[in-house]
Amino acid sequence: MVIVAGCVAQAESEEMIKREPYIDMVIGPQSYHKIGDLILSYQRKKKKFNETNFDVIKKFDELEKIPISQNKISSYLTIQEGCDKFCNFCVVPYTRGPEYSRPFKQIVEEANILVSNGAREITLLGQNVNAYNFFENNKKYKLSSLIRELNDIQNLKRIRYTTSHPKDMSDDLINCYKNCEKLVPFLHLPIQSGSDRILKLMNRKHDTKYYLEIIEKLKIANSNIKISSDFIIGYPGETEKDYKDTIDVIEKVGFINSYSFIFSARPGTPAANKKINNLETNKKRLKDLQNIIENFQLRHNETSLNEFCKVLVENKLANQEKYFGRTKFMTPVIFQSDNCKSGEIINVKITSFNRNNLFGFHKINNNEKAA
Ligand code: SF4
């Protein structure tokens, strides 16, 4: 059985079923809760389904009835869906609908269940997670309200959230980096381009000055903070000067990670029919940009060499006397230990590194302080 799901599936469902006869079912993002019933129904009737209706509230009501069985050390919790920003390259506002925030109390209850199931780190999820906005009894709840509430859950050790829009990086949220010790000092904040001209063409609703001011405020709130970002290379009309502006911003911020891609048209979006730049130029620009960011990543990892890092232990590696965990910056750490348990935060002495990983060992009863 071939099931295609997701945002583009939602937008192009009829075309997909018509053109690709092996597809049995197309399921839009607001219909995931029906997947079990749809599979059973397909087995009975052998009839193709195009399930792409748009009822986000019903989806969450249905998903709430399913007992939470996640028992991972690091768990995800969806708090928000949809987007009102309409960037000219993006299909999400058409496929996920307008911004919708789940009820505050429901999220806090779920977070408590996840922690009682063993989670020690929770990542709050949303297409525009920092646009979270819920009203109840004349009270307004924002992402900062959720972070403060989760910060008080006793056995929870780390809080993350993704993905954010620069427009919604409000001061109350920035202050959480000063006041909530469980919020990790690592933020994924997409900028897409460092050229104000391209940002305008993209309809991003922010410029580079505004973005850099946010980074400054974050650094004042917590001087340890590190940033990762998204970049689109070769957006229609990007010139060499626009590309250089992007590299300038990268050098200024020193991003330690990125999701970077060459522009690819999404059907139905305003940018879909624009003239595409030369592919070879785009490939070279992307490679050069990635090299620069990889260099920042490598230098960041190097700062941990011969230091103690605080690592949240996730699991023991199969068939090896080694463990796997992550730093607060999400860097994977592979280490030896004579005694450690999943879910603990321990001090690991880093003895070597590469661009993606840190390596080291953990000994109990060492008195050295973690970096
Ligand atoms: S890129 Fe992000 S902010 Fe822009 S429209 Fe898509 S989901 Fe919304």
Account of the protein in words:
α8 packs parallel to α10. A hairpin with a 5-residue loop joins β15 (322-326) and β16. With 371 residues, the chain is α/β, with parallel strands linked by helices. The model is unreliable at 367-371 (pLDDT under 50). It is built from twelve helices and 18 strands. A five-stranded mixed beta barrel has the order 14-15-16-18-17. It is globular and about 60 Å long. It binds iron/sulfur cluster.
Kindly summarize this structure in a few lines.
With 371 residues, this protein is α/β, with parallel strands linked by helices.
Report the end-to-end length measured between terminal Cα atoms: 50 Å
Tally of strands = 18
- Secondary-structure-based class equals alpha/beta
Mean pLDDT: 91
Shape summary: globular
**What share of residues are in beta strands?**
15-25%
Cα-based radius of gyration, to the nearest Å = 22 Å
What is the N-to-C succession of helices and strands?
EHHEHEHEEHEHEEEHEHEHHEHEHEEEEE
Which stretches of 5+ consecutive residues score pLDDT under 50? Answer: 367-371
Biggest sheet details? 5 strands, mixed, barrel
Q: How many helices does DSSP assign?
A: 12
> Considering DSSP H and I runs of 4 or more, what fraction of the residues is helical?
25-40%
Hetero compounds:
iron/sulfur cluster
Strand order of the largest sheet: 14-15-16-18-17
